## 1
Amino acid sequence: MSETDVVVIGGGQAGLSSAYHLRSSGLDIALLDANPAPGGAWQHRWPTLRMATVHGIFDLPGMRFAPPSPDEPAADAVPAYFAAFEREFGIDVQRPVAVTAVRNSRDGRLLVESDNGTWTTRALINATGTWTRPFVPYYPGQETFHGRQLHTAHYRGPAEFAGKRVVVVGGGTSAVQLLVEIADVAAATTWVTRRSPVFRDGPFTPDYGREVVAKVEARVRAGLPPGSIASATELSWTPQLLEARERGLLLRRPMFDRIVPDGVRWRDGAAQDVDVILWCTGFRPALDHLAPLRLRGPRGGIVVDGTRVVADPRIHLVGYGPSASTVGANRAGRAAVRELRALLAAPAQV
Ligand code: FAD
C-alpha cells in the first residue's frame, strides 16, 4: 500500500490541469488513469470527429495547443497534445490503473483501491469524466428489437450504416453531426428528440458560454444530478448543418413511445421500420467508485461548492457539472488545488 497526500483519479483535461497546479505545492501526488495511453476520453472519439467539427479545445495550463490541421481526427490531435504536455511538465501518470472503490480508512485518510494497487491519501481529486458511463434511456420493448442498438460512445463512422434504415435519437451536437454523416450512406434516416431542438443563430460567444455554465452550476449547488454542459447548450447553425437543412435532413420527429422487433412506434399509431437505433443520449458522471463514501444527497446529486464536495472537503470533483468542458476543467483544476493546499497545510482538527 502506498501513502500520498493527494490522489488524482483520471488523466484527461481535468486530471492533467489539477496535476499541473499540484506540481509546485510540495505535496506528494499519485495520478491514476484507467486508459492505456494519454488523451483521456479523446483517444476514444469516433475517427470522423475532426478538429474542424469539435466545439474547440481550450489549452491546458502552461502549454499552447498549436492548431492542428482542421482535417485531423480529434482522436489523434488531442491525445498527442496531452502526451506532449505530460512529457513537458514531467507529469507521471500511472496507467492503466482503474480505481474500483474509495473508502474512509480508520485513521481519517481515504483508501483508494484499484485493479493495480491501493493508496491511502489525505485528499482526493476526482477527474473521471463521463465517457465510461454512456446513458441510454429505457423505452418499452427495447429488449425485443431485432436490429442493432448502439450509443454514440461506440460509433466508429458512417460506413457500417450503408444501406440501413437508421433512427438517430437525441437533440445535441453529436446527434446532428452523426445524423448528417450517416445520411450520406444510409437507405433512410429518422431524427427523433424529446424536446424541439433549439438552434442558435449567433456565434458561440464567451457570454453565452457563461450563461450555460451558470445553468449547470445552479443544479449542482441545489444537489441535483448535474446534466451536461452539452445538453444545456443550444445547437449552432454551422455550414454543415445549414446544408443539411437544405437537403431536408433535419426534419425532427418527437420521441417514439415503443420499440418493436422491427422498428419504432409512436402513440398516434405512426410506425417506422428500422435496422439501427443510434442513441446519442449523452453520458453520466463516472462516479461509481465513490459510492462507498455515500456522498450523494437526497436530490440525487453530490452537492458541491465550486469543486469541493460539501459533505467531505477532502474531496474535489473536477470536470464535473459546470466544469465539464475543456475550459471549465482547466479553471476547476486550479481552484481545487488552491483549496486543497490550504486544507492540507492547516493543522488537523481534533
Ligand atoms: P475525460 O477526458 O473523460 O478523462 C477522464 C479520465 O478518467 C479518462 O482517461 C478515464 O480513463 C479516467 N477514468 C475514469 N474512471 C476511472 C477510474 N475509475 N479509475 C481511473 N481512471 C478513470 N468539451 C470542450 O470543451 N470542447 C469540445 O469540443 C468538446 N467536444 C466533445 C465531444 C464529445 C463527443 C464529447 C462526449 C464531449 C466533448 N466535450 C468537449 C466535453 C469533454 O468531454 C470535456 O471537455 C473534457 O474533455 C473532459 O475532460 P475530463 O478530464 O473531465 O474527462
Note: The chain has seven helices and 19 strands.
## 2
Amino acid sequence: MYKKRTIIVSNRLPIRIERKDNELQFIPSEGGLATGLGSVYKSDENIWIGWPGIIPLNTQEEEIITQGLAEHNLIPVFLTEEELKGYYEGFSNEVLWPVFHYRPSYAVYRTPDWEMYQQVNAKFSQVVDQQNVQEKDEVWIHDYQLMLLPQLVRKSYPTIAIGFFQHIPFPNDEVFRSIPWRNELLNGLLGADLIGFHTFNDTQHFLNSCAHILGLNVQNNCLHTDGRSIFTEVYPMGIDFDKFSQLANSEPIQTRAHSIKDYYKDQKIILSIDRLDYSKGIIERLLAYENLLVKYPELKGQVVLYMIVVPSRDHVAQYKQLLDEIDRTVGHINAVFGNNEWTPIAYFYNSFPLEELSALYVSADICLITSLRDGMNLVCKEYIASKENTDGVLILSELAGAAKELTQAIHINPNATDQVTEAIYKALKMPVAEQRMRLNDSIEIVKKFNVRHWVRLFFSRLREIKLFQQNEMAR
Ligand code: G6P
C-alpha cells in the first residue's frame, strides 16, 4: 500500500551551503523551523524543498549539491542572481516584509520584482511537480516568500492536502490593501486547505482582507471559494524546549556562564539578540538604555547592555542604513557615558554558536525584546527555556506575537522610551522570589507548547480538514 509522503516547502532549506576555500560546506540550521520539522522530513520518504543559499558555479557543482542534499531528504531549488534580486531582496524583503510589519512607507513597488516573485513561485511549483507527488501526499508551505505557491500546487493536484503557515504578522486589511498585487497574493494563499498564523489578530486581518478585498464569504474562521472550504487558524509556534534546557544545564555551558558572570562581576547583564532588522526596535532599545543612564546615573558601571545583532539581508538598502544608525548610536552612548573601567554596551555584529548563546541566556539578568512588530519572536522563549536554574527577567514588547502567551513577562511598548527605561529599572530591582515566580509560569508555557506540539497540532488539523472536505464532497 502507498505510504503517503509529507512535502515541506520553504524559501530556505534547513541546511545552508557555503563555499569556503573552494570547498562546499553543508551547514545545518539551528533555527526553530529546522528543529521542529526535523523529525518529519528526515523520516520515511518525506522531503523538504527549498533554496540552498548558494548559486552553483556550474552544472557539476549543482550536481554535487543536489546529491549531498538528497542524503538528508532535501531537494534544492536553485535561484539565479537575477531571481534572488527580484524575488527575495526585491518583492519579499522590500514589499512584503515592510508592509506586513506595518512599514508601508519602506515598500518599493517595482513591477519587474513582482514578475520575478511570480516566476520563482512557479519555479518552486515545478520542483514540487518533479517529485512524483500523489494525491494522497500532503504539502506544507512556509512563509511570505511563497504566497502564490499553494494555488500553483492546487492546480496540479486538485484534492491534495495543502497547509500554509505564515511566520510573520499579517497586517490589517487597510495596510495590506496598499500592495498593488494584493488580490493575486490572497488568491495564491487560498489554494491551501489550512492557513496558520501565530496570533488571533493575524487570522482576523487575513479573513478581513479576504472579505473586504476579494468579497469572499467568511463564516467564523472558514472561507468558501471555488467550491472549497478553507480554514484559517492560530498556531503559536514554540521552540525545542528540551534542547535549550538541557544545554543550559550542561557542565560546559554552566562553566562558560560562570566565566561571563565573572567578567562582568559587578554588572547586571541586559541581553538582546536579533537579526539586523528595522522591525526589531534596536534603535528604540538603545534610546531607552541611554535614557536609563541619564535618569539613574548611579547605574553607571553597574549594568551592561550585551547586544548581539546577527547580520541579515545586508544587500537591502534599509538594512544597510539601519546598520549605520546602530553603529553611530552605540558609538555615541559608549563615548558619552563610558569611562576607563566601564563600557556601557558590548555590541557584536556577528552570528554566535548555539552554545555561546545558551551561556549568555544563563548568565543574563534581563532579556530585552523591543520588537516594533514580530510574528512570534523565539529568542524570548529560548531565554525562558534556559532559566530553570538561574534567575532573570524577561522584558517583552507587546507587539511581538509571544506577548500573547508570555503574560508574566514585563510588557512594554517599545515606542514609549520612558516606559522601557522604567521596565529595565524595575527588572534590575525585582526581588528574586518574584523573578522565580514569573519565570516558572513562563517555563510551563514554553515547555508545554513546544515546537513538536506545534507541528503535531498543525498536521492533525490538516488531516481532519481533509477528511471533512472529503465527506463534504461525498454528500
Ligand atoms: C524570518 C522569516 C523567515 C526567514 C528568516 C531569516 O524569521 O519569517 O522566513 O527565513 O526571517 O531571514 P532570511 O531573509 O535570511 O531568510
Note: The chain has 18 helices and 17 strands.
